[in-house]
UniProtKB/TrEMBL annotation:
Tetrapyrrole methylase domain sequence ranges: 197-400
One GO molecular-function entry: precorrin-2 dehydrogenase activity
Gene Ontology biological-process annotations: methylation
Protein name: Uroporphyrin-III C-methyltransferase/precorrin-2 dehydrogenase/sirohydrochlorin ferrochelatase
Signal peptide: none
Ligase as UniProt keyword: no
Organism: Paeniglutamicibacter kerguelensis
EC numbers: 1.3.1.76, 2.1.1.107, 4.99.1.4
SUPFAM superfamilies from the UniProt entry: NAD(P)-binding Rossmann-fold domains, Tetrapyrrole methylase
Amino acid sequence: MSHPEFHHPHDHAHQQTHQHTHQKEQAMTTSNESPIHPLALRLAGKDVLCVGAGTVAARRIAQLLDAGARVTVIAPQAVASIAEAAGSGKLVWLRRGYEPGDLDGMWLAHTATGNRALDARVAADADAQQTWCVNASDHAASSAWTPAVARTGEGTTVAVTAGGDPRRAAGLRNAIALAADTGLLPLRRRRSGTGSVALVGGGPGDPGLITVTGRRLLAAADVVVADRLGPRDLLNELDPSVRIIEVGKAPGDHLATQDEINAVLVAEAQAGNRVVRLKGGDPFVLGRGGEEAAYCREHGVEVSVVPGVTSAISVPAAAGIPVTHRGVATGFSMATGHEELSELPARADHTLVLLMGVARLARNTATLLGRGLPADTPVAIIERGWCPDQRITIDRLDSIAATAARIGVANPAVIVIGDVVRVSPHAAGRLEPAARTRQLLPVG
Ligand code: SAH
């Protein structure tokens, strides 16, 4: 409570704290027009009462337990999560209605019974004994609000209230969390001394196709070791103090060797930096991420892996091609070339996805034709998938190599071979409508 000698000129509520009258309630309402006073509570080991045990209460109780509060729940019935928490001793559940005296010894109360009158009674009792109370059914009359909270990492908590409108607060909180995750807020902490490496899959190129975790790590990085492929646009958004080391294609077309890349990762981490190794697609799909992770571990550098959206699946999708499709293909294989192609299933209903396959396209198609894959099996080549200059070329197995050579198909490109190509809206008109096509198109 306030210091006894402090009397705010408008604080009628304070002056009447000890009169449990109707008049007092009105005074409380008036005082609620004053600006709220945000506080961050340390609840560890503190008793908190929750009256009501429905879904709203369950969310709050989970937060209170996270904060280490000693939670007592009062309700005749409870949702499963609360009953389970009681069963495992994480909280105390008194299976009965609210009674006067239940608030004794409580630092904070929360009432969410679904019954407005009962919530009001709990809140009034709490006021009477100077216990803060969040009243879920009446924000305006509530002595305390639960803000919408975002934990933005590195010990930062953002709490938002929006004039008692929880939806607006949650919307704003989400926007702040997104800005934090994407590096738009200056939340990078000072270097801590222990460096680390995160192998982050950046997806096929579109900045929207990196994971939320990947983006968050990127926003917190001191050093980014970047490839030629992947979401290059994200590099432009990084704080100017972030060092970007290009290992894909350095000026003068020098490609860093894997040994050089490994050495850079370890050296930067050992210098205390948070290093993000940003890779195209998924780090563990033809990305040598396994070697980089092993090298870091061997050198005592903490390393984590954040999976990414691999081009093997997502680049066909950019052309509307599902790698499997009911009634068309139940499986797919990914390969880089010749040797594997002489062993993988050569059937139009088993999708083949070739990465890094442009140079050997003629040889690869000859191998597949030689293995009996029908000449009219459709093939799609998607160059620069998910990038603004994406190009899709679709043709038959026996003519795709000549077509690709004529129009100058170039890396990076994903080649898809199999009947699933017919599912693409881009296939219409480019392949002769084989009799079996109609059968193979999606049903329903
Ligand atoms: N780890 C990556 C693959 C790296 S190998 C992943 O999971 O996607 C590099 C090959 O990936 C390229 O030769 C090309 O075949 C393919 N590739 C990557 N990004 C691509 C893109 N945006 N469009 C087309 N092909 C792409």
